[in-house]
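Quarterly update from the structural biology core.
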Amino acid sequence: GVSYADSLVAVAAAHHRDAAAVGVDVEREPGDGAQRPLHLGALFSPAPAPDIAGWTLIEAALKADGRGVAVDFGEVQVEAIGSGRLPAWRVVRLPGRAESVEAAVVTGPAGFVLSAAMVPAAWERHPA
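Predicted structure, tokenized:
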């Protein structure tokens, strides 16, 4: 997976035994101490939009899923913890997909928020 923000390029890769698909998203932190990018409000309305870290988790998961932004954002759920397969990763549940995607915010360069996601290989082999 590849993502761009300004001149920064982020790349995610995994061994095929571990992940059937990967996704990555990088976003510049909003200016003036804002926690939510202004352009997200309409996508999540009437629910509140996620903060920038939540948005990168969702974007990375959608890229790993392969459908990108062709899902109903109101139905995307980011859970507090993951499956336990990867320490500190979280479960992202996407509409139309029985199995969840694993995602985490990872340390990146100052001024950017970076998340990576993966569809574990065993789940992809047995889709619902």
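Residues 52-65 form the longest helix (14 residues).
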